[in-house]
Amino acid sequence: MLASLCLFVLLVVSSSYGGHRQDTLADEELARDRQPSKWGSLWPLPQRVNTFDVSFKLAAASFQIFDGKASSAGPSCNLLQNAYRRYYKYIFGGIKTKWPSQDKWTDFPQLSGLQVLITDPDSECDLYPSVTSDESYELLVVQPFAILKAPKVWGALHGLETFSQLVYEDEFGAKSINWTEIVDFPRFAHRGLLLDSSRHFIPVKVILANLETMAMNKFNVFHWHIVDDPSFPYMSKTFPDLSQKGAYHPYTHVYTPSDVKMIIEFARLRGIRVIPEFDTPGHTQSWGKGQADLLTPCFAGSKPSGSFGPVNPIINSTYDFMSRLFQEVAGVFPDDYVHLGGDEVDFSCWKSNPDIQRFMEQHDFGKNYSKLESFYIQRLLDIVASTKKGYIIWQEVFDNGVKLKADTLIHVWKGTKQQYQNEMANVTASGYQTLLSTPWYLNRIAYGQDWRGHYTADPQDFQGTEAQKKLVIGGEACLWGEYVDATNLTPRLWPRASAVAERLWSAKNVTDVNDAYDRLSSHRCRMVERGIPAEPLFTSHCPHEYKGI
Ligand SMILES: *[C@@H]1O[C@H](CO)[C@@H](O)[C@H](O)[C@H]1NC(C)=O
Ligand SMILES: *[C@@H]1O[C@H](CO)[C@@H](O)[C@H](O)[C@H]1NC(C)=O
Ligand SMILES: *[C@@H]1O[C@H](CO)[C@@H](O)[C@H](O)[C@H]1NC(C)=O
Ligand SMILES: *[C@@H]1O[C@H](CO)[C@@H](O)[C@H](O)[C@H]1NC(C)=O
Ligand SMILES: *[C@@H]1O[C@H](CO)[C@@H](O)[C@H](O)[C@H]1NC(C)=O
Fold first, then answer.
1. 28 noted as active-site residue
2. Helices first, then strands: H and E counts in the chain
3. Which of 93, 113, 345, 517 has the largest count of CB atoms under 10 Å?
4. Which atom of ligand 1 approaches the CA of 176 most closely?
5. Residue 363 half-sphere exposure, CB side, CA atoms within 13 Å?
6. 1: CA distance to ligand 4 center in Å?
7. Which of 169, 328, 344, 535 is catalytic?
8. Residue 324, Cα to own-chain centre: how many angstroms?
């Protein structure tokens, strides 16, 4: 499994562990005498922000979020109307204190509403977001109402989140906002989060809660590592036995077609793409339960041992199966890309099988099983390309020299810092676009503030030309599921994933970890106030603590 290599890294890191006091002293030092960030609680930090010492009050009873007259997305744009309601609730929902009386209230300058204006004739309201979506927006908070301008709905969604982050409670608990000017757009187009629903089943409502939290952090890709060795929870219409026999339970631990539809639409309404991963030829033990002859029979000496290895690459039925499965997947998941995995293929079973040995000889592969893997992947890529999808693959497929379509995305996940930087350099030198995950394996946990390490990693930090750097289109935080289920997924993920979110959204020079600490502490409290059990960064308290279960 992908996590195994990282366990080694973890052991190396934890050998320098210095005990409770030493670990926290440095953090206590940092927490002392701290000035709040001049950027308030904005997270991720927008590209350009101007704030002024002029504040306005927001009255829940009269405040409105409304469409600008010239907007190309009017009342019929469900995506925006939905977002207006969501953000109205986030802004005013947490109110506990009584408002100042109406008379006292009118002494303060007020902000009466937020006007939202989609400026491009095609708002993309009914489309799915893509890697080329325009996510930019401009926000001007002035009287009598704030103005949010965006070419497309995707930018408006981000702008609504930013607006909600500007609202704070004054000393009387009244909702307030300062005169502010913001111009914003993401540094990287692909800002992903991987969740693994095979090692443990993740209930639909937990996935939805995390999509909601992703939107609060301006993540825009849900990489759904939906199946793997331990279980196959995806319910296929073409091959119902895959989940019937391969899921932990055929009724309670599966994603039905309507679950999947709901997740995709929920994500779309938040500007998030859903990219499923169907990882082969390794990581497929659960597939074999519902699909006879798909996996390679392993041999002990001259007899089958009864166990099975990776997908059997030498029989035609394998490719017929893959064609039909990916035909279905292409129809179910609207995104332009699927993730095809291709990592960590164990060759020992292939080596033991006499039919495979014969096939190797016939094809002049010698003893090089990478060539057999490449033979398989090559045919799979052709199958997927014929469904008109692009593909993402883990770095091993590139390392093994498989011929790839020019628009293939190579996902880098292995090695030390030096090794992944070399890999990024090699992948981009070959002209491929790439995504980085190595420094962002959030399933690895350590005592203390490990988010700081996640925060300081930069995906463009490697030896290469400007053209090579441009091929880095983003990265993904990964939460592998060995030790994670509904009980601990959300607090383990947030706010640690938020560190990655800012690295992928904000300008390259936003690197002040102390300033980030202040903003992230407040951002974490805001997630808590919104009902997300995001864990604390360090000794602290929130104005509105988690209400719990
Ligand atoms: C907002 O404005 C008030 C003055 O009305 C000022 O005291 C405060 O520092 C400002 N806050 C920010 C984040 O600029
Ligand atoms: C498998 O397919 C190939 C090419 O489509 C064909 O040449 C070959 O005869 C087939 N093998 C079997 C066993 O059907
Ligand atoms: C095995 O084949 C791959 C190409 O698929 C090649 O890159 C690699 O160098 C080969 N390994 C050996 C040991 O020959
Ligand atoms: C990158 O390429 C260089 C030279 O071609 C090679 O020496 C190095 O091993 C490669 N690095 C990786 C991580 O593949
Ligand atoms: C980053 O650089 C820009 C342009 O050079 C500058 O305006 C901005 O203040 C810098 N931001 C930070 C946080 O240093």
1. no
2. 20, 18
3. 345
4. 1
5. 19
6. 24
7. 344
8. 28
- 401 CB less than 6 Å from ligand 3? yes
Report which of 366, 389, 337 is spatially closest to residue 223, judged by C-alpha positions. Answer: 337
Residue whose CA is at the smallest distance from ligand 3 atom 10: 368
CA 10, CA 22: separation in Å to the nearest integer? 19
Please tell me the distance between residue 236's alpha carbon and the centre of ligand 4 in angstroms.
40
pTM of the predicted protein model: 0.93
Q: Residues 213-224, buried b or exposed e (16+ Cβ, 10 A)?
A: bbbbbbbbbbbb
Atom of ligand 5 nearest to the CA of 45: 13
**Is the C-beta atom of 370 inside 6 A of ligand 3?**
yes
CA distances from 491 to 47, 59, 80, 407 (A): 28, 33, 29, 36
25: left (phi over 0), alpha (psi -120 to 50) or beta: alpha
Can you give the pLDDT at residue 299? 97
* Averaged pLDDT, groups of 10, the chain, 549 residues long: 42 41 61 79 98 96 96 96 97 62 67 97 98 98 97 98 96 93 98 98 98 98 98 98 98 98 98 98 97 97 96 98 98 98 93 97 95 94 95 94 87 97 98 98 96 98 98 98 98 98 98 97 97 96 88
Nearest CA to ligand 4 atom 9: 422
